Amino acid sequence: MGCTGSSRAKGDEAAKKIRKPKPWKHTEPITKTQLMRMRDEFWDTAPHYGGQKEIWDALQAAAEADLTLAQAIVDSAGVIVQSADLTICYDERGAKYELPKYVLSEPTNLIQDS
Known about the structure:
The chain has helices at residues 2-15, 32-45, 53-63, 67-77, and strands spanning 30-31, 80-81, 88-90, 96-98, 110-111. The protein is mainly alpha-helical.
């Protein structure tokens, strides 16, 4: 019986391993400045979507970190990662956190600022 619980926990750990989002394309070419403005606006308003501010802060830190540090951040914050690219997560109380791809990576059609 103990083995079943152990293997399930090990399977859960593998499912929580985060990865970079798949390449994506914005609806129209955007500049780095526009992308940063979109990200700032999202993170400024994210706590209003529900959930805990501390979890939103942890998700922002994870989104802006490299994968190893991001994994450590979500693990220590108790974030339950449903989608390995961090687009859908939950906290320990079951609140859902959805992150748009533009806060996690750059689009393939990013253009130079003029």
